[in-house]
Amino acid sequence: MTLPKAPVSASLAFALCALLATFVQCGNGRVAPQDPAPALVVPKDELRLLISGSMQGHLEPCGCASGQLGGLARRLQHIGEQRNYDLLLEGGDLVDGNTELDVQKLFTTTQVLFGEHPYDALGVGPQDLLLPRAEWSAFLAGAPVLTTNLTCADPEWPGKPFVEKAVRGMTVRVASLLLQLPAELDQPEGAVQRTDPAAAWAQAFADAAPATLRVLLAHGDDTTIRALIPALAPAPDLVVGIDRDYIEPSSAPQMVGTVPLLFAGIRGRVLLDVRLSRETAAPRATCELVPLAASKTLPGGGGDPTVKDMLLQHRLQVAKDEIREHLARQRPTPNGAAYVGNAQCRVCHETAFAGWQKSKHAVAWQTLVDAEKDQKRYGWPVTHYPDCVGCHTVGYRQQTGFVSPEVTPELLDVGCENCHGPGSVHVDMGGESKLGLIGGVTPSMLCVQCHDFEQSPTFLYSDFWPKIEHGREPDQRK
Ligand code: HEC
Ligand code: HEC
Ligand code: HEC
Ligand code: HEC
Question: How do residues 269-288 score in pLDDT, each as one tens digit?
Fold first, then answer.
């Protein structure tokens, strides 16, 4: 069902009538007074919402480049400074995996989101559902977790069909729809079941007063969300799309019929500051982006101190629990061979090795060691934090890959095998088996797996390759 778009003049005329009612007999089929005052401002009840989604475990920017955006400490500082958001909404997909590390990230994130400035609603994304259920349910018990079209037999399941809040005489109700279950859970007898999104939406609003503002957090891709919106009755006043491929958030709502649609972006880098109201029948939303740069917060602020302390505790705990070691060697290597370390390659690739040794890749581990000691920038055990170790060592999380500086000293730094793949077979065969590039990708696709838009915003293959250029030895050229 789509509501007809109300002509602006209708609401204006109505407001005028109300305003002039004491002087002029209005309505009764009579025409409104002549010459209305120019640029009359219609008083409007607006709701102010702060929206984000798809944090994917990015509790803080990594610091690999300057000027990075995001982080929970800056976000909560921003909320504390503004103090006038009516509704704080986090879309979901708080994490990006289901390991021991993700469980600890979830714990810390829920403490932050429901601590000092408690969030009003938390959507649930496909990644969240893959977390170990017991921990997920326990950490979120009592939190406003939205699972409008999901059911679960688990009695501890914290999901609710909607949350409602009264704000300055307005009522707003928020629901969350998951348009596709992750493949692992999409089974007829699975613990979590997905129900029809449009039916679940209708049910969630069945007893809502017509004036209630209706907000939807929709987990799915652009096409699926757009196809769903016209099927929703009553029509939403705002739809927020949460889609991991939608990296940058929307700077203005896109209209699907009369319904404003916004995308939340990813990693909590840029938040949406949305003002929402309903004029006669159709909703109206405007949106401003809040990029969470260090300078966004008060001078010297740089993040909410309580949140910063929670993040520090998280990091210390991760180191103490030796999660770096637990996550090591869990996955197969890309080509089935074993990692051997650069020294082995040097034997036959002297020139390439000499070139590598002069490159920054050869100091990638030392960079972490230095960062760890730098109290101003880090001051926490980055060399033990799995997210940092991944791109600054060889083969982390894969069989035979990096475990720790003590166990695998030959696999520190970004080495030959980060790019060419595990070399044991190639070495054993004196170079007779082909290595190529890891995953068989093109060179530039290889680089951006680590040099992504956050770690390396200035990355251009044509600028960066010359700095690490190398090749075959003269005697290997055929
Ligand atoms: C025993 C000598 C030897 C060792 C050790 C060795 N290589 Fe090679 N490598 C060769 C020879 C010989 C060739 C040329 C083979 C050909 O193309 O016929 C070669 C070619 C290559 C090539 C280009 C062809 C291809 O397979 O893609 C790469 C890349 C390469 N080596 C990487 C490495 C890496 C990384 C290591 C260490 C893990 C390593 N090599 C260790 C002898 C060696
Ligand atoms: C496994 C992750 C990884 C991959 C893949 C990777 N890099 Fe890097 N690269 C790094 C890290 C980490 C650093 C930072 C090292 C440091 O400064 O400690 C870096 C630094 C560099 C630098 C130095 C930048 C500067 O500030 O001077 C260049 C150049 C570079 N990489 C080029 C490349 C190119 C070209 C590719 C693809 C062929 C590539 N890298 C692939 C991780 C990677
Ligand atoms: C996705 C891969 C990736 C991850 C994850 C990653 N790094 Fe990096 N890091 C890089 C790359 C690539 C560079 C080089 C960037 C460039 O010069 O363009 C780099 C550079 C750095 C630098 C050098 C910055 C400078 O000012 O010279 C530091 C310090 C650093 N990383 C620390 C960390 C820490 C701490 C973490 C974990 C919180 C981390 N990295 C996680 C890829 C990564
Ligand atoms: C950051 C990624 C990266 C690292 C680290 C790296 N290489 Fe390479 N290597 C490349 C790329 C990219 C090419 C070019 C491939 C192409 O043009 O198809 C290449 C080319 C080569 C070639 C020639 C390949 C051919 O088919 O002619 C050899 C040999 C080689 N590398 C060996 C090494 C050795 C040995 C090391 C370690 C000392 C090393 N590489 C480290 C990315 C890397």
Answer: 999 999 999 987 799 999 99
User: What is the per-residue pLDDT across 376-408, written as a single tens digit (0 to 9) for each?
Assistant: 888 899 999 999 999 999 999 999 999 999 999
d(CA 22, ligand 2 centre) in Å: 73
- The angle formed by the CA atoms of residues 130, 135 and 139, to the nearest 5 degrees, is 110
Angle at 13 between CA 208 and CA 213, to 5 degrees: 20
CA atoms within 13 A on the CB side of 6: 14
Residue showing tokens 């035979």: 400
Q: How many CA atoms lie within 13 A of 216 on its CB side?
A: 32
Identify whether 234 is preceded by a cis peptide bond (ω within 30 of 0).
yes
CA distance 123 to 317: 27
Do 139 and 157 form a contact (C-beta atoms < 8 A)? no
- Yes or no: say if 221 and 180 are a contact pair by the CB < 8 Å rule: no
- Structure tokens of 142? 């009592």
Sign of CA dihedral 176, 125, 50, 291: negative
Pocket test for ligand 2, best of 420, 442, 451 (most atoms within 8 A of CB): 451
Chain center to CA of 51: 11
Nearest CA to ligand 3 atom 12: 451
